[in-house]
Amino acid sequence: MQQSVASVRRFHPEARIICYTDKMGQDLISDPHIDVRLLEVTARETDWHDPRFKVSAILNASTSPFIFLDNDTYVAGGLSAAWNLLKSYDLMAVTAPIKDQRKAKNLTKLNVYDSIPDDCAEINTGVLFVNSSSRCLECLKRWVDLLELNPGELGDQWRMRIALFECEPILYRLPPNYNFRTSTPQALRGAIKIFHGHENQFERIAERLNASNEFRDIYKVGNSLRAFPIHDGNLLGKLKILARRFTR
User: Fold this and answer.
1) Residue 68 and residue 57: Cα distance in Å, rounded?
2) DSSP letter string, 109-164
3) Which one-letter DSSP state was computed for residue 99?
4) Which residues contact 148 (CB under 8 A, 6 or more apart)?
5) In the β-sheet with 224-229, what is the strand arrangement from edge to edge?
6) What distance in Å separates the CA atoms of residue 70 and residue 128, rounded to the nearest whole number?
7) What's the rounded Cα separation, in Å, for the pair 11 and 56?
8) CB 3.0 to 4.6 Å from 169: which of 4, 135, 189, 203, for a disulfide?
9) Kind and range of the H or E run holding 174
10) Closest CA to 210 of 177, 239, 179, 184
């Protein structure tokens, strides 16, 4: 969490940072300029994980436009360009690498989930640009309501998928640069703005992976994130990349 907060402060010293946390997290934050707010939410026993703390924090913050960041994120560049887009949309986020987590994990779902088209992919809720418009608030409140249905079957992204489909906010899907999941191989062009994962020394990782803005494939080799250039139309280059994947 400290790494995430410090990264926001580095690129946006003007930003007002509100940190929703519990008592343990409160003791980790020493910056007097951070607005620390305690949430008393008791986790429930579920088949996956209970996201009520996270969703409660998002709903509590929804009085004006804001950016929500999970505590395992790292801001590696300025966010002003995306922030300026938010006035035209209710919500902005990145499509999740796995479009249907409940199905991928072979977990049961609410019946309403089956009525949603397969190609209506989940968004990753670890990074959200929230307009706090009336349509956005309707969607967030529906998200909270869905958490209370079948409370033993949790996880938050598949429920957000239902809320988005039902409430129809104007959603802008950002490129993966704004929520780069370090656990998932991805191809992208340009600088990674927000990393999302449980890595140490994110500053060094960001410096290395953002050394080039060219189209590149990024994935883990052992425990290290590596970037490999993708040469459009260069079949030999692509075959070399595949060979590296299978030999390292």
Assistant:
1) 9
2) --GGGGGS-TTSPPEEEEEEEE---HHHHHHHHHHHHHHTSSTTS--SHHHHHHHH
3) S
4) none
5) 186-188, 216-221, 224-229
6) 9
7) 27
8) 135
9) strand 171-174
10) 177
Question: Which pair of tokens denotes residue 103?
Answer: 């199905």
Long-range contacts at 10-18 (CB < 8 A, ≥ 24 apart): 10/75, 11/75, 11/76, 11/77, 11/78, 11/79, 12/75, 12/78, 12/79, 12/80, 18/61, 18/66
| Tokens encoding 41 | 């939410």
Token look-up 């249907």 returns: 100
Q: Which element (helix H / strand E) includes 229?
A: strand 224-229
- 206-216 pLDDT tens trace: 999 999 999 99
pTM: predicted TM-score of the whole model, two decimal places: 0.88
Q: 187 is written with which tokens?
A: 């191809």
Q: Is the pLDDT of residue 45 over 90?
A: no
The answer for residues whose C-beta is within 8 angstroms of residue 206's C-beta and 6 or more apart is 74, 76, 192, 195
**Digit-coded pLDDT (tens) for 162-213:** 999 999 999 999 999 999 999 999 999 999 999 999 998 999 999 999 999 9
Residue from 144, 163, 7, 154 nearest 72 by CA: 7
